[in-house]
Design brief:
heterodimer, A: alpha+beta, Ubiquitin-like (UB roll), DNA polymerase, domain 1, five-stranded mixed β-sheet, 5 strands, disordered N terminus, B: alpha+beta, Aldehyde Oxidoreductase, domain 4, Aldehyde Oxidoreductase, domain 3, seven-stranded mixed β-sheet, 28 strands, 28% helix, 25% strand
Chain lengths: 174, 774
């Protein structure tokens, strides 16, 4: 078994001003944890819940790699504190594929259209796409580019991402 | 099966894991009990370090260790320069600053603590006494007499001086009909991968083996260097580069943290990790591209270039680390590029400044030299009143001149272009973009008060450097095929490409092949993934190993089937007598027979595995033509790219989908450099672009659709006929876009000689022309 290092225990004078107990539902599963009040939501998801698919790219809210859905809205998980997510329902990249382990149509579309290279920005882009397509059908490529404009991809040059979103729009029954 | 996999447009085997969020980047690896390192960095560009006291940091609850250079012994090993030249001065960097700091961000001390939060809290408690010195940030100023000196070993701030000369350039200029020259500046910018750097390390208590996980492009080289600095035998260090979130050359380096993390783990006998934050990334990542070119062409009356003379100043930053002068060398030897120029003289001065050290970034010297050359081509066409496409066509190396020996040799190898038809590529690109119709289109637009422009860049790229790459291919007794490669890719689709090559050779489903790389524990020698080497170097070594395995399998099958090996064929993973599928053996059966104790012919070694190393001493060159069309908003200076065409020739393409992805991604980075990306320092050496708010990366609204045409001139230098091509987009993109912007505004009476062409820059150029439009 791994020895868990409780980070809150080493914060000087840990008490209710430096740590809180929170309850969140992530990808359908309920978690109750005590967290340092200064811990970001993405660090909480990655370190405390070991859901490492959400990536930390800039920690200042520009690159979008850490995007998760909080109560169905895309959120930069590096700009939100874990304690602010108390009582909320989250979805991370690990929750996109169905219970049957099949790739979700959005994921499948990115696979077929070479919509990723290194894959680091991909989780944030998938969640941005998931949210966008839930609200929009038959988007134009301009609308897709607008929707993705808050997510940086350094590898693809975006055009295969745009194609992936177009394909996902066609294939995802929603 | 039966369909050839090399050349097939198939989706990548890498993707499902990454799409599910199951990637394993360095920060994702679960190391029980891991401690976190943080680095105290110099706030000064240039200062003497008078004292460092880590004592107060050690007192903070949760801190496990803190140390500075003073704790590392009196005579630590520096990060070595891999390819020094005769003129190289010794200006090395150590894991921690010793008596001076020479750029903002240089590490002075480290803290290791139970959490990153606590480690960073503790940094604030370290007391450092500095004596601030004058800094120099401009490379031209740095080599002037009287400039602040960074290193006693280089009192003129010249880290090295490189000279490349062919023919009699002075005579060419004396006899010239016309001479065209200018000073062309490229700015400092770099790869900025979306995953920052990161290192984790742990020492096995039983074996003493140190395992290092690093977001890095060359695990074997990192292993050798870190083992050397730590004074450990190589066999006791294992480096793993797991999923790597982009590199673009910036992670083909040995950084101080690559030494500090293993050192901390060894001191403490506990796992330690350090994940760079984005601010540290901007301060300490290798920078690139900043180079000044004083370039001149001598033309004869037929507008053939008879001579090229250039003086380049490369801003190499504060220290020379592993690749030191490589970028300068590759820039110097590629500046004549695709043109047949008989007399060339290039001098490159590597100037030290108080900035983060420089190293190659995607294109490695070629984006810089192509910018200078292709910009001056357009300037010359305007001055000599000749069409710019025609001027290029007249000077391009002709296919019948291949292989074309430039007579020059970079630090790496002789520059000999192996194959290709440059004029055909130019004509194809001009046709795709309807070049003949553009002049009229531009006239019409100008009559409407609109500023549109078209820019051309013709370039070649070094495509697959040596000296070698290694691979093993094994069919285990269960019939499973495993490939180990010395590659260490960062998203290039290498696993898919290598599986395609092996699938053809062993006639098995490519998806069933397990490709493993980025692990020094898996293969004895390896080089890594940079310089567009995967297809050529990893591809060929994997092909060699797979061929050996196939040959052995067939020989063994002949023994088992009591047939002549020449009568056998390999079909769908089975060896069979030609035309007699009833007498066949599966690879599984053959591999089982190959296992020790199995039924082999006398003298045959057991196991169905081969380890092969492809050694090359001459790299192929791929090439391309990029044409951009832009529109410039005369009121804001904003540039919009309206059309983008690429004709690319990289010989045999293993997977066109992957290749086109590389082109599009490269173009995005190139246009980023042309229009927006810049690492800015103020006069005191303080970085002004240390976040994504200040350093602007191309977004989805900035990069146009890219139309790609392929030509195929197979390389004679490897059995696959492949050439690397991952960097070409970044070479062509920068110059095609810059030339297009110039074409849109130079008729106003201005000249574009530097990048990035940010809106403010373009707007000021338009204003300086004093010709406000209607």
């Amino acid at each position: 078994m791994s020895r868990k290092v409780d980070e809150t225990a080493v914060v000087a004078g840990a008490d209710s001003t430096t740590e809180r107990s929170i309850t969140v539902t992530v990808n359908g599963e309920r978690f109750e944890r005590t967290v340092s009040v200064r811990k970001s939501l993405v660090d909480f998801v990655r370190e405390d819940l070991r859901l490492t698919g959400s990536h930390v790219g800039c920690e200042h809210g520009v690159c979008g790699a850490c995007t998760v859905l909080v109560d169905d809205e895309p959120v930069r998980a590096c700009l939100m504190l874990a304690v602010q997510a108390n009582g909320k329902v989250l979805m991370t990249v690990e929750g996109i594929a169905g219970e049957d382990d099949e790739l979700h149509p959005v994921q499948q579309a990115f696979w077929e259209n070479h919509g990723l290279q290194c894959g680091f920005c991909t989780p944030g882009i998938l969640l941005t796409t998931y949210d966008f397509l839930q609200e929009k059908k038959n988007p134009t490529s301009g609308e897709i580019r607008e929707a993705l404009s808050g997510n940086v991809c350094r590898c693809t040059g975006y055009q295969n991402i745009v194609r992936s979103v177009q394909a996902a729009d066609q294939e995802w029954e929603r | 099966m039966g369909v050839k996999m090399v050349g097939a447009r198939i989706k990548r085997v890498e993707d499902p894991r990454l799409l599910r969020g199951e990637g394993a980047f360095v920060d994702d690896i679960d190391l029980p009990g891991v401690l976190h390192m943080a680095v105290l960095r110099s706030p000064h560009a240039h200062a003497r370090v008078l004292s460092v006291d880590v004592g107060p940091a050690r007192e903070l609850r949760g801190v496990v260790d803190a140390f500075s250079a003073a704790d590392l012994g009196p005579d630590p090993a520096a990060i070595p320069v891999l390819f020094p030249v005769e003129t190289s001065r010794d200006t090395p960097q150590y894991a921690l600053a010793r008596d001076a700091v020479r750029y903002v961000g240089e590490g002075v001390a480290v803290v290791v603590a139970e959490s990153r939060h606590v480690a960073e809290d503790a940094l604030e408690l370290i007391e450092v006494e500095y004596e601030v010195l004058d800094a120099v940030v401009d490379s031209a100023a740095a080599i002037e007499p009287g400039a602040p000196v960074l290193h006693a070993a280089a009192p003129d701030n010249v880290g090295a001086r490189l000279v490349y000369s062919v023919g009699d350039v002075d005579s060419a200029f004396e006899k010239a009909d016309r001479v065209v020259k200018d000073r062309l500046d490229m700015q400092r910018y770099t790869g900025i991968p979306l995953e920052t750097r990161g290192v984790a390390a742990t020492r096995d208590a039983v074996t003493g083996e140190l395992t290092i996980w690093a977001s890095n492009q060359w695990p074997h080289i990192l292993r050798g260097i870190v083992a050397g600095i730590l004074g450990m035998p190589e066999r006791s260090v294992r480096v793993i580069t797991p999923d790597v979130g982009g590199g673009f050359g910036t992670k083909a380096e040995v950084y101080p943290e690559d030494v500090l993390v293993p050192l901390a783990a060894s001191r403490l006998d506990r796992p330690v990790k350090w994940i760079e934050d984005r601010n540290e990334h901007f301060l300490t990542l290798v920078h690139s591209r900043e180079q000044t070119h004083d370039l001149e062409f001598a033309f004869d009356a037929d507008r053939r270039i008879t001579g090229l003379r250039a003086t380049l100043i490369t801003d190499i930053g504060a220290y020379q680390r592993t690749l030191a002068v490589i970028n300068s060398s590759l820039a110097g030897t590629s500046i004549a590029g695709v043109y047949d120029i008989p007399n060339v003289h290039v001098e490159v001065i590597c100037a030290a400044t108080n900035k983060s050290p420089a190293s190659p970034y995607r294109g490695a010297g070629a984006p810089e030299s192509a910018f200078a050359r292709e910009r001056l081509m357009d300037i010359a066409a305007r001055e000599l009143d000749i069409d710019r496409a025609e001027l290029r066509r007249r000077n391009l190396i002709k296919p019948e001149q291949m292989p074309y020996d430039t007579g020059m040799a970079s630090v790496e190898a002789a520059v000999v272009l192996d194959s290709g038809d440059f004029p055909a590529a130019l004509d194809e690109a001009l046709k795709m973009v309807d070049y003949d119709g553009f002049a009229e289109k531009q006239r019409t637009a100008r009559a409407d008060g609109r500023l549109i422009g078209l820019g051309i860049c013709v370039y070649h790229q070094l495509a697959g450097t040596g000296p070698f790459e290694g691979a093993s291919v094994r069919v285990d007794p269960s019939g499973q095929v495993t490939v180990n490669s010395g590659a260490a890719p960062q998203g290039q689709g290498t696993a898919t490409m290598l599986a395609q090559i092996v699938a053809d050779e062993l006639q098995v489903d490519h998806e069933s092949i397990k490709v493993v790389f980025g692990d020094t524990g898996r293969i004895g020698f390896g080089v890594g993934t940079f310089a567009s080497r995967n297809a050529v170097m990893s591809g060929t070594s994997v092909l060699m190993a797979a061929t050996k395995v196939r040959e052995k399998a067939m020989e063994l099958a002949a023994h088992l089937l009591e047939a002549n090996v020449n009568d056998l064929e390999l079909e769908e993973g089975h060896a069979q007598v030609k035309g007699s599928p009833q007498s066949r053996l599966s690879l599984t059966e053959i591999a089982a027979a190959a296992a020790p104790g199995g039924s082999r012919p006398p003298g045959m070694e057991p196991d169905l595995e081969s380890v092969q190393y492809f050694e090359n001493h001459a790299a192929p060159y791929s090439f391309g033509v990029h044409i951009a069309e832009v529109e410039v908003d005369r009121n804001t200076g904003l540039v919009e790219i309206s059309r983008y065409v690429v004709v690319n020739d990289a010989g045999v393409i293993i997977n066109p989908m992957v290749a086109e992805g590389q082109i599009a991604g490269g173009v995005a980075q190139g246009l980023g450099g042309a229009l927006m990306e810049e690492l800015v320092y103020d006069a005191q050496g303080q970085p002004q672009s240390a976040s994504f708010m200040d350093y602007i990366l191309p977004g989805s609204l900035d990069v146009p659709e890219i139309e790609v045409g392929h030509l195929h001139s197979p390389s004679p230098l490897n059995p696959l006929g492949v050439k690397g091509m991952g960097e070409g987009g970044a070479i062509g993109g920068h110059s095609a876009v810059a030339n297009a912007v110039a074409d849109a505004i130079e008729h106003l009476g201005v000249r574009v000689t530097k990048t990035p062409l940010k809106p403010s820059v373009v707007w000021e150029l338009i204003q300086s022309a004093g010709q406000q439009g209607p």
